[in-house]
Amino acid sequence: MSAVYDNVLLYKKKYGGISWRIKKHSNVVEKHLNPGEEVIYAFSGQLNDNPLNIFCSAIIVLTNKRILIGQKNILFGYTLNSITPDLFNDMQINEGLVFGKITIDTVKEEVIVSNLSKKSLPEIETNISEFMMREKQKYAKIQNQEN
In terms of C-beta density within 10 A (0-12 exposed, 13-18 middle, 19 or more buried), how is residue 21 classed? Predict the structure, then answer.
């Protein structure tokens, strides 16, 4: 098994949620991991803003270098989004009646992951926020040294 799939399985066993074909989605991300890139945290959800649309499953993987969002298309091909710390702006967490969602705001776009277990929201927020704060400080130090 791959590190990506194993991490997503841990999340699914702990929190559940609505997501399908996580092994196929995991293979997409695994294919694009760079040498030296390690999986820190992974979870699955629906890559949309509509809680009734349950056919847009994807996995979100936090590595030691970036966030990867992998989605295997049903017929052929796949989609992969990469969010590096320098492009990350902020994150919004919303808890609804049954499920929760997160919105990751980047310089170029907003990524919305819905149908997440409400119990998983604090863990997801902590993992992403801690990583991004650490990495953004590194970018700030590099910028100061260049000036």
Answer: middle
